[in-house]
Amino acid sequence: MTVDIDRANAEAVERMMEARPVLVGLGTARDVVPGMKDNMLLHAGPPITWERASGPMRGAIIGALIFEGLAKSPEEAEAMVKAGEIILEPCHEHQAVGPMAGVTSPSMAVYILENKTHGNVAFSNLNEGYGRVLRYGAYGEDVIERLRWMHDVMAPVLREAIEASGGIDIKTLIAEALHMGDEGHNRNKAGSLIFTKALAPHVAKAAPSSDVASDILRFLGDNALTVLNPVMAACKAMADAAHGVEGSTIVTAMARNGTDFGIRVSGLGDRWFTAPAEIPKGLYFSGFSAEDANPDIGDSTITETAGIGGFAMAAAPAIVTFVSGTPQDAINTTMEMYEITATEHKYFTIPYLDFRGTPTGIDVRKVVETGITPRVNTGIAHKEPGVGQIGAGLVRPPMKVFEEALLAFAEKYGF
Question: Rounded to two decimals, what is the model's pTM?
Answer without folding.
Answer: 0.96
